[in-house]
Structure formats: C-alpha cells, structure tokens
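By convention, each integer encodes one residue's backbone shape. The lines below illustrate.
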Amino acid sequence: MYLGKVVGTVVATRKQETLVGAKLMLVAPYEGEGQTMVAVDTVGAGVGEIVLLTIGNPARNAVNRDSPVDAAIVGIVDTVEHR
C-alpha cells in the first residue's frame, strides 16, 4: 500500500463496462517524487484528502476481478505521524 493525496477527479463518458459507475480520482504521491495516477475510488474520497492506495492485482480485487484496474483507493487517512 502507498500513501497518496487526491489532487483531482477524472471524468470519462465512455469506459469499459465493468467501470461504469466507478468514481475515478487523480492521486499524487504523498511525499517525494513519483507519478500521478488515476485510481478507482472505493471509499468516497475527496480532493485534498490523504488516501491509502493499492496497485496491481490487489487494486483489481478491490474493485472487480474482471476490471482493467491498476490502482484503487482503499482507505482515507485521518493522520500521519512521522518519527
């Protein structure tokens, strides 16, 4: 799992059938460098929130095993504590 920050939404009027009704969010890395990616939101996250992001097969399983998904938001983070 990874930490990310929701920085926007993605609207797709045409998409694969198993993604119809899915909310797509633009997620940037929480810290450091990395790619901003599109993730399916499974928890109702909003722009500006810090989220738990999973990628690969775990993301596909979180949404629908038959969906072409590479990233999914699976949690909304309340706090992050660095030590």
User: Anything to note?
Assistant: Residues 29 and 38 are 12 Å apart (CA to CA). Helices lie at 57-63. The mean pLDDT is 93. The first strand starts at residue 2 and ends at 10.
